Amino acid sequence: MSAVGVAQALGRRERQEDAADVLMDASGRPRLLVLADGMGGAAAGDLAARLIVHSVRDVFQSEVGVEPGPRLRQACDAANAAIAEAVAQEPSRAGMGGTLVALAPTSAGAVMFLSVGDSLLLRWRGGKLERVNADHSIGGALDSAVRKGLMAAEEAALAAGRNRITSALTGAPLDQMRIDETVGPIRRRSGDCWILASDGLDTLSLTEIATVLARSSGAQSSADALIAAIEAKNQPHQDNTTVLVWQEA
């Protein structure tokens, strides 16, 4: 058995520019979890997020029974093409785009993922939390420099422009973008909890996220508790936040 929970908060933004979806199989197990964080503001970031999520879902719905590895890249291509088409139809949308993080189980007890941008893919296993995907943002690059001993953590934390993303689906050729994807399947274990989230979750540190997960029971309660913890911070510039939680029994 497995369960999926989803929770969302507007934050201090005027509209919701995150989108997420889950595609289930006939037995009620997830075949796909997908999340996008739109960008572009007046240039239709909310539309971009919906286009990305719907495009990815459509690829998976049309090819039942096919292992997810090739489909993830195909879905990424389809989502990027949908953005390009939307901009071509309405030039005022130039600049719209979005992040993508997608997670798909295999039939052999593993998962595969693909991500573009700074949306998060986390795994909670045995009381330990880790980020699985790369962070395509200035902050991600700075934090990587800290881990390599090239920069002090304090300097990285205070650097300007940390939230600026360095890769996104914008309709531009994908060979110009950074794409993070599994080289091979990642084995699942009983009790694993997988979290997909937009970068609004970055209001919480990994330690704070782990504390919330340790105190929660079940996918939906975990998703709700993460959103509650963010709202409790009462940040004046809080971004949209969307959290998808998949809990394996």
TrEMBL record:
InterPro entries: PPM-type-like_dom_sf (IPR036457), PPM-type_phosphatase-like_dom (IPR001932). Pfam families: PP2C_2. Residues 3-248 form the PPM-type phosphatase domain. PROSITE patterns: PPM_2. SMART domains: PP2C_SIG (SM00331), PP2Cc (SM00332). This is Serine/threonine protein phosphatase PrpC. The lineage of its organism: Bacteria, Pseudomonadati, Pseudomonadota, Alphaproteobacteria, Caulobacterales.
